[in-house]
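Weekly structure sync, notes
Attendees: PL (lead), two postdocs, one rotation student
Agenda item 3: pending single-chain targets
PL asked that the sequence for the first pending target be pasted directly into the notes so everyone works from the same version. It is reproduced below exactly as submitted, 621 residues in total.
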Amino acid sequence: MENLYASRVERIRDMMRARGWNAVVICGSDPHGSEYIAPRWHQVAWVSGYDGEGDLVITLDHAGLWTDTRYFIQAARQLPGSGIELHKTRVPEQVLIPEWIAAQAAAQTEEYVIAVDGNCQTAGSVQAITEACKAAGCEVGETVRIVNAPDLLDGLWTDRPGVPATPIMTLGEEITGESRPERIAWLRDVLQEKGCDAMLLTALDEIAWLLNIRASDIPYNPVCISFLLVTLDEVCWYVTKDDFARPDEETADSFDELRREGIRILGYEEVAYGVAGMVEDGEIGRIYADPASLNYNLYTILSENMPDAVSPAEVSLILGPSPIPLRKALKNPVEIAGMREAHLEDGIAMERFLYWIEKSLAFGDIITERDAADKLGSLRAEIPGYKSDSFETISAYGPGAALPHYITPKENAPRLEPHGLYLCDSGGQYIFGTTDITRTVPLGPCNPLEREDYTLVLKGHIALAMAVFPRGTAGCQLDVLARNPLWQSKRNFGHGTGHGVGFFLNVHEGPQDIRQNFNSQPLLPGMVTSDEPGIYREGRHGVRHENLILCTEAGKNDFGNWLRFEPLTLCHFDTSAIVPGLLTDDEREWLNQYNRTVYETLRPRLGEAVATWLEQKTRPI
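Predicted structure, written out during the meeting:
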């Protein structure tokens, strides 16, 4: 029987032959450059059967998936039979999509036509292809042509989901610490400094932050599929607003509240020609947009409708990084207080969950990975202010934990056994904050390698948590702290050590991170970042220890201003799997103090049985 995904690739090739295309790029994102996407834009999964992160390129004689080290094992399991080859990224020998396509184009003697789904391909990514082709000696517009083909799969994907439209809520400044008018006024000041008349916002979390609105158009991400145009005297929100799409009373009230503040609410599909029309009519001149989230289709329409520029100073569409991610990452005092509350409540749920697992296995109960994930979700759902999980819970025992982004089966999930290591990576979206925590816990006796890996990863976690560093230090300069204990034993992990976390927003945000890749953004007070080193042994086990940490001031002296991290996460680290001799005195002191803080903070809310159990778990080592 022919593989379903191989047949889909061939159907795409039939379309390519009919239209004279040499290559098709299918991006694993959406019209807003999102990391997490709604089902409508699961195009890579529909074509390939692979449901991790990544992008596809299909030519008449090759099909390739480009993804990074987090997904190599998953891709190797899901791609066989599809005819799609894995192209590895974040490895020394990587050849990225722009360079690979440029090499194919350079080998042709006739025009090479590249089709991109302009709705899901960003302007920046198409520019990268253009630059790579130029570097390979191919001139775009002459020997190479890039075709904008929005929704190119529509004719093949006949049951494709529509654009989601979930209820919308507004947040008051008692929750966010800052009102809509204040945030809009700040952005207008930035635009005036840049000499621009307007900014077109395309990233969903930026829109949600600026308007103090939330929805759930993308699972686990409290965002609304929309675009936002902010001018010096007007705000236009392009969003699905049909009463049949969003029929609830809360949405109607939210729209009324926004309209009273002078915000125009327009249709989602109106954005391209609506904004272009405002330019043509002279209502706005220079528009600022971020090419990292501005889709190529929208960029093309705006560019074609902009007046011709005589000089660079007269260019109407200005592309550059959005100023919002940095402002959004610097949590204000109200947001920090909310994040503390979220982690307190989340810590209670986590301790009750870990207690339940241990006692259930001791009684001989049968628990699967899915049972555990569902139990944790139900405990979080009891918390007032809970809105959803912040991502799909990774509940993985033994070999499953060796996949950093393991998907827990909904049926026939592996059972938890009273030995070895169980990894649970999870989080919650609360109206007062967002959490993300990983705990790897021993379910019984562990073998020497499991205990050694467990301890070395914990050493890396503690080293980063204890860091004191001068203001101006970037995350890439601290990443080695978390890796060094593993490197000393010639071990490593293939993902980043830390990512930014939003306030009741996306669990992944920038501009800061902690990873080996160069990122010049300094870590600053108010930033919330994860601390999550790991190790993964295919077919055996995986270990990851993760807390969220808040960057705070650490004093000033003759050598400058100093910063440090404060753990926000409140959940103990199990010490029973540790190899004590591998810990230094400083590491042991940090661990004992952290566990003691967890116990003393949560004890009044846990109930006698769980509190007694946690007291035993947090005894000094």
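Discussion points:
- The longest strand covers residues 547-557.
- The chain has 18 helices and 28 strands.
Action: rotation student to compare against the earlier draft before next sync.
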